[in-house]
Amino acid sequence: MAAEGYYRSSGKTAGVVVTSGPGVQNLLNGVCGCWYDSIPAFFISGQVNTKEDLSNFKSEPRQTGFQEMPVAKMFEDVTKKSLHVPELSQLEGVLKELLTELKTPRYGPVLMDLPVNLQMTTIEDVSINLVTHSRRITPQYNISEYIYKSKRPVVIFGHGVKLAGAEKEAIEFIEKTKLPFLVSWGAFDICATDHPLRIGSPGVYGDRVANYAIQNADLVISIGSRLDSRQIGGSGPMFSPHSKKIMVDVDIEEINKMPEKDVKIDLGIVSDAKNFFDSVIVDGYINPNIKHLHGNPDYSYEVRISAWANKINEWECKYSEEKSREGDSAVYDYLDGFFNDLPNDCIVIPDQGGNLVWTMQSAKLKYGQKLFTNFGNSSMGFALPCAIGAAIGSGKKVYCIDGDGGFQMNIQELLTVKKYDLPIEIIILNNSGYGIIKQFQDSYFNSKYVATSKNDVFGDEVDFVKIAEAYGVKTLQDIPIPETQKIYPKLEFGNSLENMTPYIEFEKDMVVPVPPKKKLGWN
Amino acid sequence: MNTCDYIIETLYLNGIDTYFVITGGAIVPFINAIARNPKVKYYCFQHEQSAAMAAEGYYRASGKTAGVVVTSGPGVQNLLNGVCGCWYDSIPAFFISVSMNSQPQWQRRGITDLQVRLPV
Question: B59 in helix, strand or coil?
Answer without folding.
Answer: helix
